[in-house]
Amino acid sequence: MNFLRLPPPIRSQLYRSLHTATHTPPPNYPTSLLLPSSPALLTLTPSTLNSYQISLPPQPYHLRYAHTFFASAPPIYLFTAANFRSFPPSPHPEIAFLGRSNVGKSSLLNALFGRTNIKDAYVSKRPGRTRTMNGFGVTGGIQMGKAPEEGERKEAWRRFPRGGVVVVDMPGYGGGSREDWGKEIMKVLESRKQLRRTFVLVDAEHGLKETDLQLLMHLRQQGIAHQIILSKVDKLLYPSAKPPGPQRLSNGLLKLRDLCTGIRRHLDQEAVKAGHRGRDTLLDILCCSSEKGLDEKNRHRKLGIDEVRWAVLSACGLECDEQGNRKKVLMRDIKILEDDDDE
Fold it and tell me: C-alpha distances in angstroms, 22 versus 2, 14, 17, 321?
């Protein structure tokens, strides 16, 4: 068709229609859809600070309950045991804390108990100073049993109320500790019926050491319930006196996430070397600091300590409901050992 031979009115109309079709403006999309979105910065929550693979991250009411449980009353010294056979036949659920010397275990226990004075928490500040296995009771506010009359003798663990938890402070291993302590520790971890979980502390700044790997591999092979706690995470998140800004905090949390992934990968590699092929390492890794916190309103609250408290209570079956009220405790699943029972 010869465009020039068309009548002028038709030619003008056809020209306008062709021009409009060729130059149709793009749809008016919102600017947010056209521009690439920048990744959101991580903020401090239980799920970003810790690495959960088995448990669900605790909710705020869980953490409030755990904080109140441990802070409602000071810890009670219950017993000291130099060896496995010295442990009392108590009916109470127990959890154990152990780690290399100088990993910060004593400081963590003081923070866990809500004590700022070392003497109040009955734990030593010097590396390798803990030479016996010491049990401390946390009542959660439940009243202790009647004190013995003058001239009577009644062990503290016998007066300890049901519904509480016993925290066992183990001697450190590695530099500053003694080899024979390790034998008695392993007897407790393998044979103590009341023990619900073992928490192994690892220095976040230095990572897994050879002795850590040996212990964790043994716990894995023996099927002993355990959990890793990365201590001193403030070295990664809060290295200076000045609180980190949003970007720096997010970068630190990402670095912490990579550290947890690397620990699991390292454990899997060690399992393969030892000939224990099978499922990949599946465990929760808690991260905490007994020195610093990010709560400007409450400087006594340290990083991750309430999450550790909640993990302790969960391991012992002492959780709360959605209203934050203590659940009813059933002790029928715990056998009370008599003094003449075989151990």
Answer: 20, 12, 9, 66
Q: Range of 184's domain? A: 48-145+156-315
- φ/ψ of 40, rounded to 5, equals -75, 145
Q: How many CB atoms lie within 10 A of CB 271?
A: 19
pLDDT at 22: 47
Total domains in the fold of the chain: 1
Whether 189 maps to a domain, the answer reads yes
Q: Please, which residues bridge with residue 77 across strands?
A: 136
Kindly report, residue by residue over 294-303, the tens digit of the pLDDT. Answer: 776 666 789 9
Q: What is the average pLDDT score of the chain? A: 81
Paired residues of 287 in beta bridges? 230
Cβ within 8 Å of residue 69, ≥6 positions away: 138, 140, 141, 309, 313, 318, 326
Tell me the two tokens of residue 132.
């016996």
Which pTM does this prediction carry?
Answer: 0.80
Query: How far, in Å, are 144, 162, 192, 329 from residue 337 at the CA level?
Result: 21, 15, 10, 19
**Residues 121-166: pLDDT tens digits?**
455 555 445 578 999 999 999 888 877 766 555 688 889 999 999 9
Residue 242 DSSP label: S
CATH number at residue 165: 3.40.50.300
- What is the DSSP secondary-structure string of 89-143? ---S-EEEEEEBTTSSHHHHHHHHHT-SSHHHHT--SSTT---SEEEEEE-TTPP
Residue 333, domain member (yes or no):
no
Cα–Cα distance measured from residue 224 to residue 242, given in angstroms and rounded to the nearest whole number: 41
Say which residue, 305 or 299, is predicted with more confidence. 305
Residue 139 in domain? yes
Band of the pLDDT at 275, cuts 50, 70, 90? Answer: confident
Of 191, 3, 162, which is closest to residue 81 (Cα–Cα)?
191
Note whether residue 270 is domain-resident.
yes
